[in-house]
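Input (structure):
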C-alpha cells in the first residue's frame, strides 16, 4: 500500500504538535499551581531531548513496534509501517554517522533550535489563554 505524499516524521510531530502542546500545558500548570515556569519548561525540554536523542542515536527503541520502532528509523518515519504505509525515509545507515550529512544537520538544528522554539511558542499560547 502506497503512503500519502506527505507523511510526517517524528521530528515534525514533535515540533508541530507535541512540544507546543507540552509548552501550553506547562503554562497552564504554572499558572494554576504557581509552579516555576522555567522549571517546567526545562523539564519538558530535557524530557524531549532525552527521549528523542535516545531514539535518534539508537539508544532507545520501541520494541512493541517491531522494525518500525528502531530508534533512528523511528525518528524519521514515526512507525508508519504499522499503519501499512511505506516509510518516507530509508537510509542505509543511521543518519548520525556522517556528521555533516544533511539529515544529521537537520536533526541537530531541530534539537537545538526548533524544539525549544516550539516549546516556547506553546508556552506563550498557554499564558495568553490563562491570563
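Output (sequence):
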Amino acid at each position: 500500500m502506497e503512503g500519502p505524499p506527505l507523511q510526517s516524521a517524528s521530528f515534525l510531530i514533535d515540533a508541530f504538535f507535541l512540544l507546543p502542546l507540552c509548552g501550553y500545558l506547562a503554562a497552564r500548570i504554572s499558572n494554576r499551581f504557581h509552579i516555576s515556569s522555567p522549571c517546567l519548561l526545562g523539564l519538558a525540554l530535557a524530557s524531549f531531548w532525552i527521549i528523542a536523542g535516545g531514539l535518534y542515536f539508537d539508544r532507545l527503541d520501541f520494541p512493541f513496534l517491531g522494525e518500525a520502532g528502531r530508534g533512528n528509523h523511528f525518528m524519521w518515519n514515526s512507525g508508519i509501517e504499522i499503519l501499512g504505509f511505506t516509510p518516507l525515509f530509508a537510509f542505509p545507515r543511521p543518519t548520525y554517522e556522517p556528521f555533516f550529512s544533511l539529515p544529521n544537520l537537520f536533526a541537530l538544528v531541530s534539537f537545538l533550535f526548533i524544539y525549544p522554539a516550539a516549546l516556547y511558542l506553546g508556552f506563550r499560547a498557554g499564558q495568553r489563554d490563562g491570563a
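Notes: Residues 1-8 have pLDDT under 50 and may be disordered. The radius of gyration is 16 Å.
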